[in-house]
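Please check our next protein.
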Amino acid sequence: MPVDQPGGGAEPGNDPDCTRIVIPADPTAVREGLRALFDTLLLRGLAAAERGTAEIVLAEALNNIVEHAYARNSGKIELTLQLHCAELVCQIEDQGEAMPGEVLPRGRLPVITGPDALPEGGFGWHLIRALSRDLHYRRIDGRNQLSFRLDAGQSGG
């Protein structure tokens, strides 16, 4: 399995309010990693709406890292999630290429010129910006660090 959970996870004896995974930067590993992540105690407890939002934002961020930061090489992505009050605090790190200009994309929606001209991509950063809070990016010692917060209301059952 491509998911490694050093120092965290939902296994007995570990902190149920924090999980950390390390996955290879490839589309299949991201898909499997997200599946495993959303099966952890931490994320299974989220209410349906918050769980859906977390799935969208995390998938967009991780897939952008694979597609852009690691476009010319391979590597790993480290993801740490921590439940704090009613928020899911997310930290993603990688050693891929820096963001252009070392700043986050603005997240503008792509221009749609007609019903047959719907672009295949270009919605990711708009979704990430619209659905998260306290979104920050920085590049330190050859590492990209992306952090943000998501609502984390708990399910009733």
